[in-house]
Amino acid sequence: MDKNLVTIAPYVAEFSGTFMLVVCFAQWFVAQTDDAHSMVVFHYRPMAYTAYASLYMALIYTLEAVSGAHFNPAISLCTFLAGKNRFTNVLSYWAAQFSAGLVANWLCGIVNKVGNKAEFYDHNLVVSSLCEVVYCAMLCFVVLNVACSYENMGNSYYGMAIGFTILAGGYACSAVASPALNPAVSIGIDLAFGPMGILQGLRCACCNLLGA
Q: What φ, ψ does residue 88 adopt, rounded to 5°?
């Protein structure tokens, strides 16, 4: 295989995987029907996390051999902090992941109208932030133990463990928050809501990175 293709393959995989995750999450939380003019899935959040976690599992099994299947800046950071990744590689992954979030936001903005800002952010900021920190920390903990641990190397359940962790966080917090557990997803979606969204996206991203 061409050496240049081997070099860029991990970054293309991270961009592609993150892009698909952001689009999946955004189609649930940003989509708006033409007739009702309201967020169509706002009261069906658990189903959004079922779709999100299922796609995450599929992408992990598909692209893990190419890039490690992070698709999440917080996971890239935690692998560096655990000594499993180089910082230069983390920065390159971040560039691919956040770029994917921005492109996905642009695409979803074309396809959908943006829902009610006040309703989308009708959460207690302390509780919402706590959910992002705690469950992102849990996600990173699971990733390090099932995908990066020498003792568990070669297992076939790592994708399910990671996916079900996201599912657990979504179901547990959906009544009080809309945790993405992923800075690229948070920023990618929240940009659709203007200045208010930018601040919320940065808050969620910082909470996720703190959890890592």
A: -65, -35
Residue 114, helix vs strand vs coil: coil
Coil, helix or strand at residue 39: strand
pLDDT digits (tens, 9 = 90+) for 157-172: 888 999 999 999 888 8
Q: Answer whether residue 123 shows pLDDT above 80.
A: no
Cα–Cα distance measured from residue 149 to residue 22, given in angstroms and rounded to the nearest whole number: 28
In angstroms, rounded to a whole number, what is the distance separating the alpha carbons of residues 112 and 89?
A: 34
pTM score = 0.83
Nearest Cα residue to 188 out of 179, 197, 196: 197
With cut-offs at 50, 70 and 90, classify the pLDDT of residue 33: very low
Q: Transcribe 159-172 into DSSP letters.
A: HHHHHHHHHHHHHH
Nearest alpha carbon to residue 211 among 27, 81, 20, 108: 81
Query: How crowded is residue 99: how many other Cβ atoms within 10 Å of its Cβ?
Result: 17
With the C-alpha atoms ordered 63, 66, 71, 72, is the resulting torsion angle positive or negative? positive
What does R_g of the chain's alpha carbons equal in angstroms? 16
179-203 average pLDDT score: 76
